[in-house]
Amino acid sequence: MAARHRAFVLRHTRLRPVRGLEGMRLHLTDEVLPLWHAAQIETGDPDAALPYWAFAWAGGLAIVRYLQEHPATVAGRTVLDLASGSGLCAIAAKAAGAVAVTAADIDPFAIAAIELNGRANGRRVSTTTRDLLDDGPPEIDVILAGDCLYEARLAERILPWLRAARDRGSEVLIGDPGRRYLPSDGLLELASYEVRTTTELEDLDRKRAWVYAVRSAAAPS
Ligand SMILES: C[S@@+](CC[C@H](N)C(=O)[O-])C[C@H]1O[C@@H](n2cnc3c(N)ncnc32)[C@H](O)[C@@H]1O
């Protein structure tokens, strides 16, 4: 991890418990705009990505709750946490007994946060900033995708990729609070949870969020 990114995360966040989640602490912040401005200054880029990694998003929180209730989903298996953000789903997968977990995010600040958060929770996860959506899905037992369907361009890329991963044998879980680009077909609802979030990001500080399994193209609807 670049020392600069690590120092930035440490300077602008506080390690603290995640509301509504047992036993996980993350480097988080309360306000999105001051941190975004700091990232713009740090990178010299007015189009710097929003600091998604400094929040636990509703979709990811639902996946964590699901893995805590159903550890067998990942226990003894290899896991990819795609669009990992703070790394909360990756950390939860490791805590549930996954043998190897990779957290992927294209934002280098997210990678720094994931590594710090992994260490803070005593869970080792591998990381990559490579944009995995540029290639076919890797061979992996389980793919987690928490709160990725908030933007048209990302949804257009990620949904066919997740379906392709499912068709080649990965189990694929999506966590989502009803974002605009959540598809209305091809998903099997597994569970829903009321999760604690923040009005910095959402209209309400409690949201219902769902966990879905992506159906294989061969499965009956
Ligand atoms: C709303 S956040 C969700 C983070 C986390 N999964 C959660 O639920 O808290 C979406 C994340 O997707 C990441 N992202 C966007 N495009 C991506 C891509 N092509 N590959 C991997 N991550 C991506 C962003 O950097 C951001 O961290």
Description:
This protein has 221 residues and is of the alpha/beta class. It has six helices and nine strands. A seven-stranded mixed beta sheet has the order 5-4-3-6-7-9-8, sandwiched between helices. It has a two-stranded antiparallel ribbon with strand order 1-2. Strand 3 (78-82), helix 4 (88-95) and strand 4 (100-104) form a beta-alpha-beta unit. Helix 1 (3-12) crosses helix 5 and helix 3 packs parallel to helix 4. The longest helix has 16 residues, at 152-167. The radius of gyration is 16 Å and the shape is globular. The mean pLDDT is 95. The structure holds S-adenosylmethionine. S-adenosylmethionine (SAM) is lined by residues 49, 52-53, 56-57, 59-60, 82-86, 88-89, 104-107, 110, 131, 133, 146-148, 150, 154.
List the helices and strands and how they pair.
Elements: H1 3-12, E1 14-17, E2 25-28, H2 32-43, H3 58-69, E3 78-82, H4 88-95, E4 100-104, H5 108-120, E5 126-128, E6 142-146, H6 152-167, E7 171-176, E8 187-196, E9 206-214
S-adenosylmethionine is lined by residues 49, 52-53, 56-57, 59-60, 82-86, 88-89, 104-107, 110, 131, 133, 146-148, 150, 154.
